[in-house]
Amino acid sequence: MSVIVLVEHTGGIIKKQSFEAVQYAAQIAPKMGTTVTAVALGSVTEAEMENLGQYGAQKVLHVADGRLDELHSRAYASALIAAAQKENSKVVVALHDIRGRAVAPRIAVKLKAGLVAGALSYPDTEKGFVIKKAVFSGKAFAYVNILSDVKVIMLMPNTFPPQKQEGKAVVEQLDVSFSEKDFSVKVKSVNKVTGEVPLADAELVVSGGRGLKGPENWGILEDLAKELGAATACSRPVADSHWRPHHEHVGQTGGTVRPNLYIAVGISGAIQHLAGVNGSKTIVVINKDPEAPFFKAANYGVVGDALEVLPRLTAAVKKF
Ligand code: FAD
């Protein structure tokens, strides 16, 4: 009756946020008198999977079908459901990210489970199964009690930093009989981003808005990001105007980041933007308008022209 966790990987390397999800499940499992089984899909090495023991997984069920290297949400859901049924699981944990959002609701429907998206706390089992989550674009919190027998939790990434301990998980193969429908969506092309810090995993993010005036000015933002070892992000109008690629767009309708440091340059701080970044540990805002709403959410602020401030900041960082 273990707690099962969907583990994600990039090219066979398990994502840091999946260690977090496994560790999160390992905090819940003892309260339910059970253990953690991670589920790895596609081409992942035995050693990578065994390492999940360092974050609290006793077992890994590996569905080794190479087609699962790409996201096929139906097939992922079928694999997770097969794992949940095999383990007689009452709790399924996935990340609140692109894969989790594509898969977890399907699992919840199939298993007739209540689902909490964007979980920010461990379930309070003394009050039932109560989990904290952000609502109204992060303006308020809700405490949601899952009443169903089976429960699905989508954990907000970067909420509980993973900490490695001793341990080695046992890896078992799981055979799943997929149907043709499971792979009915074909991936026609994949744009691989190389040589950059992936946004979802980044601990430092430098993000630009319309205040940068145009794509020709992005070089000075990239210089700062490079100097800091940070990922770059942007507001939605910037991506909509094709100044930057869409995968960099953060906010309510884009990605969610929770880095240690988020530097917002020429971004007004609309609620829809804040929804994707207000979990950042420290926020620095650079804006020429002292009344820009983003300053209310900032830990530090610089009132000034981004085109002047950015090169000076980069030069200052270079001195360290
Ligand atoms: P602007 O609002 O134009 O702000 C530019 C800022 O730059 C201003 O504060 C200005 O003072 C400053 N500035 C100008 N020149 C300079 C300079 N030289 N130096 C320094 N500062 C300067 N937005 C998102 O970002 N993400 C989302 O996911 C998202 N989802 C949305 C969903 C819905 C349903 C809706 C309705 C809107 C959504 N938006 C989203 C849009 C959002 O409401 C804002 O319009 C958007 O975030 C504004 O982008 P911006 O701050 O880059 O541009």
How does this model look, in words?
With 320 residues, the protein is an alpha/beta fold. The protein has helices at 16-28, 46-50, 73-87, 98-110, 218-228, 236-240, 271-274, 294-297, 306-318; strands at 3-7, 9-10, 13-14, 36-41, 59-63, 91-95, 114-119, 130-135, 140-145, 151-155, 170-173, 204-208, 231-234, 261-265, 282-287, 300-303. The protein has a 7-stranded parallel beta sheet with strand order 7-10-6-1-4-5-11, sandwiched between helices. Strands 13-12-14-15-16 form a 5-stranded parallel beta sheet. It has a two-stranded antiparallel ribbon with strand order 2-3. α3 (73-87) crosses α4 (98-110) and α5 (218-228) runs parallel beside α9 (306-318). The chain is globular, with a radius of gyration of 21 Å. The model has no long low-confidence stretch (mean pLDDT 94). Bound molecules: flavin-adenine dinucleotide. Flavin-adenine dinucleotide is lined by residues 209-211, 235-238, 251-254, 266-268, 270, 272-273, 276, 286-289, 292, 305-307. Residues 3-187 form the Electron transfer flavoprotein alpha/beta-subunit N-terminal domain. Its cofactor is FAD.
